[in-house]
């Protein structure tokens, strides 16, 4: 047996550490597997671990590895910083002698296995009996695990592996030379822990068979002894030097593992030792074997290195030969590729020249045919066919006419002169025909314009682009369209002037109808000829025609808007409104001037302006859509063009087309924004915004002036009136579809609500809610004054009561305004979605930002409402609450047991206190909105808690007094929870801690409760008591030692 054989024999095939399926398991004959439960065979096992600190436990990790459900609890979480690897999935086992039994039973009630790894007899000290736990849970197996044996007096919470091994008395005398390191110790302890796990598994197996509950006392120290006793029974007789790892010179290892005595002879023979003496007569030891292994290993390495070098040289020679062969083949392939490339290039050139020749021959044929056909067609006035032939002539390559013309005189002499003369003649004939056709088309088109012959105009307008006269054709056709637009404008304005001349009909004239008729007529004409223009002239020339037409459209519409301003007297009204804004209504002394700003007249003007702007925007959207549709069609034609084009070429065409499309879009936008019609309309819309602002302001002022309160209503009419006006104005502006106009109106509405409306309500709130003492004094003085004035005791309308009513109405108005504004905001968002379609991202952001001002205003209304509620509570409820709470000082709180029992039967204070508080609050229930009433209740409850805290620190208590105040506080909190909700319990948290401390039986109990507040995450930092407050509260107890309270040591 060689050393190599020894090394190879020391390795055996092992399975994968983790297998994803049953097929990957290393199996021998006779082994069967369960497919369904292999990954988690213990998935139905419920394991509970009690550990002292949050570190890993071998047994629990073993059960969790095979699918068991594990619950971990520790008593000392703060020691986790001591250990390198502590676990975070532990739950805190916070038990005392009073609550330990109930908590432990609750934890282990559904458990199959309880592993107790707590220090010492912790559960026994907590008065928890293992037998009682197993009676409550008939399936429970309890394993009490520890590091040392129960007979060993040593103790440590988490001893090291080495300390456990040397405490087991296995190595004290047997082998004094053997020294364990960390890895040996860890391996031995792991084997012992596995032995302990096997005991638990056997107990679980026996429970499943016979139903026996068991209590296991398992120590790692005992398990180590058991493992060594088992391993010694299978110990080999072979000397240790034949079962050892030897180190080589290069820091490698050779493993020698001989189990049979017969293999010793073969091993010694491999080492070239004398096997006849059996290795003993020559006093062979492990040092001799180590020297021989080191020498043989070095010799083997040298021999192996030489063999590898020889093999490498042979391989390099082979690589060199193959490289030369590959180089020769690559050279031949390269030469062939060059030959093929040159031939393909020659073929491409030849093909190109042939195609050019064929194309020129075709062009010559077309040229000859045109020259022969066109004169006859002109004579017969078949102008469409003439233009088709001329179009072919204009599209021919100019090189066609230079064939046969060469500066080389030798080539001229060798060539027949017929070809040159024929081409020149044909070229001259076609040029003359082209010139003649241009004159005919232009003259016929001009005659058609003079005569108003639409068919002739359309016919020759289509012919001009075929002979490259696009510009002339568009200019002439634009004149025709302008005349049509002018006819429509004149007809509509004549009808308008007739209506204005009739006094009975003048007041009902709607300029919106005239605007609609003119713009629809222009759009109809453009739509009628749009297809003809785009097909024959293209989109760019169509856009040029539109620019020419727009001049006449501007003239007609601007004149109409000027007439509107004169008839409706818009300029004068705007002038008067500016005067009002600057100097107020006092300057409008003349009745005629006041009538000019009548609301009905203004609304009629608003309607016309809004609808006219709507129609103008609709007209512009129509023009943009028609141009955009033409561009979309052209883009589709490019995508569906000839298949000979490559995808890259199509992409380039689309990119260049997209640039042209954006330029067209910019042109149409400039036309829309810079036309005279748009400028005049924007000016009129600015005047509309100013008039609408005046209308809203004056209407809101009237709503404030005529504000009244309906019977059985908690809000006044001002809320509905104001928000009706604002809603009406803003929604009217939406009809214009002008984003700038809508944003301007929203800004004006926000400013109006914030200044006029909000300040009016806030003025009432600032006047305050009169207190009862002031109200009585005012009422007495008012009564006396009326009696003196009238000479009798006349009933007086109390000004204080009126002030109270106004305050409460204003308070409700603020809350109702916030709700109305929120409804208005959501309604406007829906209107935007329904009426403003196809907005750009810039316009959409404008609307969102402007409408966002309403959200700020809603928050402001809510804040004013909350502030008013606090002022109401401070002036109306706080004095009464303070007076009623201070009555608690009149009751004795140092009680005997008889007094406590008597107070339990007849409550001395709290019941009457709650009745008074409920009476104070109930009178506001029907005169406040629900949200305001809830806010008032919350403020009252906060005030009650604050007053009680002050009163408690003025009292003295004993044990029964503390019990009494704790009971009274719970009664009070229960009432406040009913009327205010569970949120009040968070506010009452601090007072709850105070009453609990006063109810403590001993100082130690109070200290435990106070320290528990530190770890309670539900306690808010603002409600936590300081150390001084804690001592101050305990000092209120007369039956507790003052010295002990001063000497309390807390965290």
UniProtKB/TrEMBL annotation:
Annotated TM spans: none
GO cellular component, one term: Golgi transport complex
UniProt keywords, alphabetically: Golgi apparatus, Membrane, Protein transport, Transport
Name used for this protein in its record: Conserved oligomeric Golgi complex subunit 4
PANTHER family: CONSERVED OLIGOMERIC GOLGI COMPLEX SUBUNIT 4
Organism: Parastrongyloides trichosuri (Possum-specific nematode worm)
Main location: Golgi
A GO molecular function held by the record: catalytic activity
